[in-house]
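Example 3.2
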Amino acid sequence: MTQPNILKLAKQGDTQAIASLMNRHLYPKGITAKVALKDACLEVILESAQVPNRQTLVAFIRKGLTGLGAASIERVKVYGQQTGEEFPA
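Structure, written as tokens:
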């Protein structure tokens, strides 16, 4: 997928495109994003060796999603999870 296509899909609320954009920025920091959309609520699980910093990453996600302006997303839940753990912290 090319950058314009990923951006266009993300603005339409495509979860794979949103995850791809997040991972492009987070992966170099050792963080992986998993994204799902349930009843207009975007659920984001951020996974890394250490539980990710909540304040920093919530601000990052808020800024990114606000910029996308996806109408299909009304709420966002963000979870931090340590790699290998079954449940978020």
